[in-house]
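in:
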């Protein structure tokens, strides 16, 4: 028999959902059976006794749950193992990618070519959220809540990524992302050609193509559209000298007001500055040349800065994540070549 005191991350949920998260190896039928046979009782904060509750009874902070189950059965039903052991994959999270951590948030500089969520792109590879949960295993003691993604990002984009350690913080930040409130995201892109001007705003409207197969998922469309607003700013410019031509390369900072799928990629291509190695919206012949001669293996796009309101600290925060090594090496290479001429 055990008595569990409900703490912050486990409060405000149905009893049956709490028990299913607690007993991860139990079927829902077994949990209902436990409750039906009065093996689960709850004492609310203002009462002095435990009693049987319905499955949909909502448990709150400091309520107590008594389990009339043997310690051995509790251990077997709730046994958890680190993700890397569960999946058989040993790829682990690199703590060098931590940008910020406190009791509420875990913010990292996500690598490219890794899924943010299990089973994205129908892949069985371990995801970044699995790596993070594995990494935090020892010091995260909630019974039913795991550190969770606040937002998501493309697999082949490197990015500053927010993960919430507390359920209430997760809810508030997810809502901010949905409403585009108190959140600002800033990207760095390395593009072909010159910008039309040092800074500007792109307001071309976008249409998302559902079930796109032999066409791009997003296109500019002024009739059937979603409003999309991107602000860009010139950062740096280089000239790459090849045997047959001189190729201008622009480093661009982009801040987006609306968060449409592929918005930055489509908008930059629309002003004749496609992102290098963007296979969907970029220049295929130039992509091929830079892949062959400069070893560019993914789109040169990095979400490097995020501004948000920290609800526990009650203040605005702005964090930056360094450019990943492949992008920085590419810039160092073309910068060195520019100095030679």
């Amino acid at each position: 028999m055990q008595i569990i005191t409900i703490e912050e991350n486990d409060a405000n949920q149905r009893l049956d959902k709490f028990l299913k998260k607690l007993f991860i190896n139990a079927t829902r039928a077994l949990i209902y059976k436990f409750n039906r046979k009065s093996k689960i009782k709850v004492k609310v904060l203002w009462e002095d006794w435990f009693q049987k509750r319905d499955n949909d009874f909502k448990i709150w902070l400091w309520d107590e749950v008594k389990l009339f189950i043997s310690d051995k059965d509790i251990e077997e039903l709730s046994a958890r193992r680190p993700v890397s052991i569960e999946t058989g994959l040993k790829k682990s999270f690199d703590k060098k990618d931590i940008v910020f951590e406190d009791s509420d948030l875990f913010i990292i500089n996500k690598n490219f070519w890794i899924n943010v969520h299990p089973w994205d792109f129908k892949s069985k590879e371990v995801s970044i959220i699995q790596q993070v949960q594995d990494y935090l295993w020892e010091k995260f003691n909630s019974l039913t809540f795991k550190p969770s993604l606040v937002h998501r990002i493309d697999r082949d984009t490197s990015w500053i990524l927010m993960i919430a350690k507390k359920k209430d913080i997760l809810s508030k930040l997810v809502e901010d992302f949905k409403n585009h409130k108190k959140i600002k995201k800033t990207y760095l892109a390395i593009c072909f050609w010159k910008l039309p001007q040092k800074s500007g705003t792109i307001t071309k409207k976008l249409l998302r193509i559902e079930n796109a197969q032999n066409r791009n998922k997003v296109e500019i469309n002024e009739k059937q559209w979603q409003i999309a607003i991107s602000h860009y700013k010139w950062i740096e410019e280089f000239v790459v000298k090849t045997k047959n031509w001189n190729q201008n390369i622009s480093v661009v900072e982009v801040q987006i007001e609306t968060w449409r799928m592929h918005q930055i990629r489509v908008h930059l291509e629309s002003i004749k500055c496609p992102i290098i190695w963007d296979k969907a919206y970029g220049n295929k012949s130039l992509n091929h040349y830079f892949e062959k001669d400069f070893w560019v293996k993914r789109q040169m796009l990095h979400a490097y800065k995020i501004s948000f309101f920290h609800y526990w600290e009650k203040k605005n925060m702005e964090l930056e994540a360094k450019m990943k090594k492949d992008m920085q090496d590419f810039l160092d290479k073309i910068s060195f070549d520019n100095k030679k001429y």
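note: DSSP finds nine helices and 17 strands in the chain.
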